[in-house]
Amino acid sequence: MSDREIEQADPAKDVPVVSTTDPAETKLVDQGQSKAKVTPKEKKSVLQALLNFVYNPQQKTVLGRSSLNWAKLALFYSIFFFCLGSFFVGFLYLFALFTDSNEPRYTNTESTMAVRTTATVVGLGFRPQPKIDDNLIRVTNNKQQQEQIASSLSLFRQVYLTQKSDAKTEVCSANNPASELPHGFACEFDWSDIVKNDDHPCSEKNLYGFQQEQPCVLVKLNKVYGWTPSPGRLPEHIVKLQGGHNSAAIQDPDVYITCEAAHPADKDVLTGLVYYSMDNPNGSPSYGTIPNHFFPYRNAPGHVQPFVLVQFKNLPLDRLVSVTCRAWAPHLEQETRTMRGLVNFALYRSHKS
């Protein structure tokens, strides 16, 4: 047999070659090769792009706008904000035109003062108050400190408790109450109606009692437009102080002011209180009175808010005493949490500089 007949075919030559490469991988490789072929000149840096956005010298634009475009935009917003401001000022003028500057539109129970209550909220204040955010009144034997705290009360007196000579006032009484005064008129009332002369314990000469370490504290009602004590029975506390047992309904009740220790531990040491008021300028050991005919307050230019002076004659030494003063009248609400109808302050007598 010839060699050609004996020779057999090679199996490797006859087997077809199968590719194992994934088409997706081939595509990624092609993309990577195409990116690698991008020249550096065709790339733009982020900084260069930002600079071109800020100012493009070829197109002569700033922030993508030409000078003419910026001028049109500025003109549009100038007109827009001018019209918007004119609209606001116009409505503000109309609001002021129809708003009474002397009388609030809503008063008493019709106002927000009656929120969460059916009664008008009446608050109290006190002076001297050297620091507006502090209710501590220091009583000391130091002359300089006495004059300093007395000056606080003097300033309040000069600004709020002195009627000017040109003020429109009339003498108020039960027959001529404030409710019947002409518009713009106030009841005639001044500091001197209670403190008659320099010999008074609460006079300026005596530094309002601080010179003798028997301070006089001014207690007043806050100004509530149009409020008048409503008719009714007096509180039992006031009836007992007056020596009565039962109180009949009163048509024109007064407002009474009393002070007491805020804490039970201070009740034994807080004694010797004297109240000086319109009804008792010489002093009363029971309470101070603000007459009914001084109400209501109507924002008259010469109005002076009536007050009561409370003198503390027997303050203990080196002891902090907390005091609560209350206003009493029929249907006048008192609430400790919201300080309705009362005021708190503290007294501290010391001989240390």
TrEMBL record:
GO MF annotation terms: ATPase activator activity
Spans annotated as Disordered: 1-23
Record localization: Membrane
This protein's UniProt keywords: Membrane, Signal-anchor, Transmembrane, Transmembrane helix
Main location: membrane
Coiled coil: none
Signal sequence region: none
Any single Gene Ontology cellular-component annotation: sodium:potassium-exchanging ATPase complex
Superkingdom classification of source: Eukaryota
Transmembrane region(s): 74-98
Family statement drawn from the similarity comment of this UniProt entry: Belongs to the X(+)/potassium ATPases subunit beta family.
Topology term for the membrane: Single-pass type II membrane protein
GO biological process: intracellular potassium ion homeostasis; intracellular sodium ion homeostasis; potassium ion import across plasma membrane; sodium ion export across plasma membrane
Protein name per Swiss-Prot or TrEMBL: Uncharacterized protein
Basic and acidic residues composition-biased segments: 1-13
InterPro entries membership: Na/K_ATPase_sub_beta (IPR000402), Na/K_ATPase_sub_beta_sf (IPR038702)
